[in-house]
Structures are given as structure tokens and as C-alpha cells.
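Is this the right way to post C-alpha cells for a design question? Let me know if I should format differently. Anyway, here goes:
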């Protein structure tokens, strides 16, 4: 028997922070325990046929198959095909995996698909869908332990969130990819997002403030190219290459500039729950901030292509804004990513 589907307009409010999706969401002792609780609850809403789609073996090759471009289909179960109850359970799992700020960004990125549909017009309905996001659980969270990890993927256009948990620990939370098109909504649109919305405002504004504060000697070290690259490196690859760091070293920055760089890194770190983000930042501190480098390419003002890279021994951040939005506004389409140089998906670098 085919399940009835809720109309889109009745479903979209569930995507927003502070609405029905957070009601009854109880934080457990650790983010991993909360994720295990809500992953198990989500899987219990599925039929055997749906489980075959949404739950895959932990060692499935699909676990490291990620990307953020529009695709006809992906691994996992798409939210569009879920009942309202399943969708709520899925979003509770996503909410448990992220901080409040991270969940708000993810929700708004999904809602931007509706903005793109409106901007692109007829014929874009299938391609631009706020419910074309896929949930995949790898392994068995209900019976997970230190020796039996399980994974989670939540992915669609401009969003790829990937986690590995073992016992009561989130052992990896990368690749973490977020994007925004338009980066700034230039005109009034229908729906919950409004003119002036900038989903990834901090990721861009703090970087402009940092590069704009550099003196001539510092700028000569930080700027690695006059033109920004078209895309982040290693997009869709299971592991990033560990290249030599480029740009200006943290130690060559003035105290206020060092503070700004730390603030920028923290914005990326805090997409995930506090316990996980603090572990990320402790790992950077353990390796010493003096080993962190900041590199810039392209223009140092909005509306013209720009790119930056932040790299330390254990992490890599990349940001690029070079593409126009559907209305033709230049450099109004952001891609940004956090990667684990010790190995994404909980896998060691070979």
C-alpha cells in the first residue's frame, strides 16, 4: 500500500530550527549517544524494503562516495519519498549530528533549492527540490560499540555531511561540505528565506576582514594567485591530498589577525555539536596554531572571484566564490569544506 505524502508547503517548516523538529529532541550524554538513539529511531520507522535502501553495511564502498553537485539520485533514502513521520525522525537524526548553528545552515541550504527553483523557472522542479536530500546509515547503530563503528551520511545538492561513531565517540565528522547559491539573495523571493539572506556570511566576511588587514609584506606571503580557482580541490575524492601548506603562517600575523583567523576556523569547527567542535579545536591546539597557514587567491572585495585555504597538520579548510548566481550576479555562489588530513570517513591516509 502506497503511503500518503504531505504537501511540500506543510513539510518545509520542519526544516527550520526552533520548530517541530526540535520538539522532544533530548540530548544524551554525548553527541554519539544522541546520534545512535535517533538513528535507531529513524531505522525503526522503515519497512524492510526501505531499510535495504537507507541502511547499508559499514564497509560499503558507497560510504566514501560523496559529492555536492546536483544528481538524479544518490545513495540512501530520499526525504521526498518519506512519510511525514519518517522525515521528522530523519531530521531529528540530522539535528542531533549538528550544532544549532550547523543545523540552521543545513536547513537554509536545503531551502535555497526552492529559491533556485524560483529563479530558474519552469523545468527546474525535479533538479531543485528542498526535499531531495538523502539519509544513509552505515552499519548497525543499535548494536554499535568501540569495535563496531557505524556511519551516517546526509547529502544532496550543496550539502554533504558525513560521520563515523564508535561507542560514545564521534570519531570523524568529515567531509563537511556546505554551499550557498545565491551566496546573498539579491531580490525578494517567496518562501521562508528573504532578500539579504547570507547563509555562509561569517565564512566570507571574517576572511575578507582578515585579508584586508594584512600589510604589504604580509599580503605578499598570503596571496598565492591573482585569480581564484574555479573550484575547491579534491571535490568528491574520498581523501584530500596532504600538500605543503601555502600562504602566510599564523606566527607572521599580528595578534588581532591571529584572533580573526581563530574565529574563522571556529566557524567551521562549530557546525557540529559542542563536544565534537571542541575536540577539533583541541587537536589544532595540540599541534600548535603556529603550524596553521592562511592562503588567499583572487579579488579582495565581494562580487569578484575569491578563494582562501586554511591548513594545519590535521585539517584543511577551503572556500571558493567564483560562480554567478542564476540571475547572473558574479561571484555569488559559495562552496566551502572542512576536511580531515588524518583521514576523512574515519579512514587513515594511505
Amino acid at each position: 500500500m502506497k503511503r500518503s505524502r504531505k504537501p511540500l508547503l506543510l513539510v518545509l517548516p520542519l526544516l527550520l530550527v526552533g520548530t517541530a523538529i526540535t520538539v522532544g529532541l533530548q540530548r544524551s550524554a554525548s553527541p554519539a549517544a544522541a546520534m545512535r538513539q535517533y538513528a535507531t529511531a529513524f531505522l525503526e520507522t522503515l519497512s524492510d524494503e526501505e531499510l535495504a535502501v537507507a541502511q547499508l553495511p559499514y564497509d560499503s564502498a558507497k560510504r566514501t562516495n560523496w559529492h555536492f553537485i546536483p544528481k538524479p539520485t544518490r545513495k540512501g533514502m530520499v526525504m521526498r519519498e518519506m512519510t511525514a513521520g519518517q522525515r521528522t525522525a530523519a531530521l531529528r537524526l540530522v539535528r542531533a549530528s549538528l550544532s544549532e548553528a550547523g543545523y540552521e545552515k543545513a536547513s537554509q541550504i536545503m531551502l535555497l533549492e526552492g529559491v533556485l527553483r524560483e529563479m530558474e523557472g519552469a523545468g527546474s522542479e525535479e533538479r531543485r527540490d528542498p526535499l531531495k536530500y538523502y539519509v544513509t546509515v552505515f552499519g548497525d547503530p543499535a548494536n554499535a560499540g568501540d569495535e563496531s563503528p557505524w556511519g551516517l551520511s546526509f547529502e544532496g545538492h550543496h550539502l554533504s555531511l558525513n560521520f563515523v561513531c564508535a561507542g560514545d565517540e564521534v570519531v570523524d565528522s568529515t567531509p563537511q561540505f556546505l554551499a550557498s547559491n545565491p551566496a546573498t539573495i539579491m531580490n525578494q523571493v517567496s518562501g521562508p528565506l528573504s532578500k539579504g539572506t547570507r547563509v555562509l556570511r561569517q565564512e566570507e566576511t571574517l576572511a575578507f576582514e582578515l585579508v584586508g588587514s594584512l600589510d604589504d609584506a604580509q599580503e605578499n606571503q598570503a596571496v598565492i594567485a591573482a585569480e581564484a580557482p574555479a573550484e575547491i580541490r579534491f571535490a568528491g575524492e574520498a581523501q584530500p591530498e596532504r600538500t605543503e601548506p601555502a600562504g602566510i603562517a599564523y606566527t607572521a600575523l599580528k595578534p588581532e589577525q591571529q584572533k580573526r583567523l581563530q574565529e574563522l576556523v571556529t566557524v567551521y569547527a562549530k557546525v557540529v555539536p559542542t563536544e565534537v567542535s571542541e575536540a577539533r579545536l583541541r587537536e589544532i591546539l595540540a599541534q600548535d596554531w603556529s603550524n596553521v597557514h592562511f592562503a588567499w587567491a583572487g579579488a579582495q572585495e565581494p562580487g569578484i572571484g575569491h578563494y582562501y585555504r586554511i591548513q594545519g597538520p590535521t585539517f584543511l579548510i577551503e572556500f571558493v566564490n567564483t560562480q554567478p548566481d542564476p540571475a547572473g550576479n558574479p561571484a555569488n555562489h559559495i562552496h566551502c569544506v572542512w576536511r580531515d588530513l588524518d583521514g576523512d570517513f574515519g579512514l587513515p591516509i594511505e
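Format looks fine. Someone answered above. Worth noting: Confidence is low (pLDDT under 50) at residues 1-24. Residues 201-346 form one domain.
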